[in-house]
């Protein structure tokens, strides 16, 4: 896999090109994130990136903002509600300042560092992967409703890896024992990406872009070309996610 920190910076640049070209009315348009405008989505990305800019080093701890709610989505919604209303230019400048600093912040962490993040602690490279996944998902929230092209790239391999890697966690959240799953996915350029043990009793095949969108809860499995084979493969597709919850 290409270096995730380089790919994270490239994902920021791709999104920045979209945001820089938005007209004022597009900033106030509804996004694909329920209840949020495009400006709200970018504000959320800025707020979460700022947390990366001052990382809390920890052995086992987690970081969840204290906003009076116990859910991740609720905490993020509270933070956006508390700060929405700034001019689009200010929101964009705030996101740029935080986002373009992130790769160097993560790259500078000593080997073995664990950083507090939401409900767990992550290595700097895994945190970079989650930031790439979140920016890619929210880019869909911005571009799809506005009819703006946002091509999938080889960078989504990191997102597919994250979704597969966290399947045991997804099963545990649902109160289920982990099930071994092999993913055989087709990359945007037509090459093959595989994750897991080919001998696993459960197999998911199809476009990597679809798998990532299911993991981001932007599509349901039924809306995709993915195939689930094996006793628990359909449940894996129903439970998979590439973001904290």
From TrEMBL:
It holds the Pfam family MDMPI_N. It comes from the Bacteria. InterPro entries: DinB/YfiT-like, Maleyloyr_isom, MDMPI_metal-binding. SUPFAM superfamilies: DinB/YfiT-like putative metalloenzymes (SSF109854). GO terms for molecular function: metal ion binding. Residues 8-142 form the Mycothiol-dependent maleylpyruvate isomerase metal-binding domain. Gene3D superfamilies: dinb family like domain (1.20.120.450). NCBIfam families: maleylpyruvate isomerase family mycothiol-dependent enzyme. This is Wyosine base formation. It comes from Actinomadura verrucosospora. The lineage of its organism: Bacteria, Bacillati, Actinomycetota, Actinomycetes, Streptosporangiales.
């Amino acid at each position: 896999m290409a270096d995730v920190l380089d790919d994270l910076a490239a994902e920021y640049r791709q999104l920045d090109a979209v945001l820089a070209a938005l007209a004022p009315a597009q900033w106030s348009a509804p996004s694909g994130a329920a209840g949020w405008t495009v400006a709200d989505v970018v504000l959320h990305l800025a707020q979460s990136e700022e947390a990366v800019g001052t990382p809390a080093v920890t052995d086992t701890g987690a970081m969840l903002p204290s906003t009076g709610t116990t859910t991740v989505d609720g905490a993020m919604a509270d933070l956006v509600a508390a700060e929405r209303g700034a001019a689009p230019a200010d929101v964009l400048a705030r996101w740029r300042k935080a986002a373009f600093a992130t790769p160097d912040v993560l790259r500078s962490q000593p080997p073995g560092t664990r950083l507090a993040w939401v409900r767990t602690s992550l290595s700097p490279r895994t945190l970079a992967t989650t930031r790439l996944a979140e920016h890619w998902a929210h880019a869909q929230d911005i571009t799809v409703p506005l009819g703006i092209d946002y091509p999938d790239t080889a960078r989504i391999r990191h997102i597919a890896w994250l979704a597969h890697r966290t399947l045991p966690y997804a099963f545990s959240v649902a109160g289920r024992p982990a099930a071994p799953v092999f993913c055989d996915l087709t990359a945007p350029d037509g090459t093959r990406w595989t994750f897991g043990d080919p001998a696993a009793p459960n197999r998911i095949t199809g476009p990597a872009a679809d798998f990532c969108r299911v993991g981001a809860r932007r599509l349901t499995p039924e809306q995709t070309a993915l195939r689930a084979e094996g006793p628990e493969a359909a449940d894996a597709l129903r439970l998979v996610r590439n973001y904290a919850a």
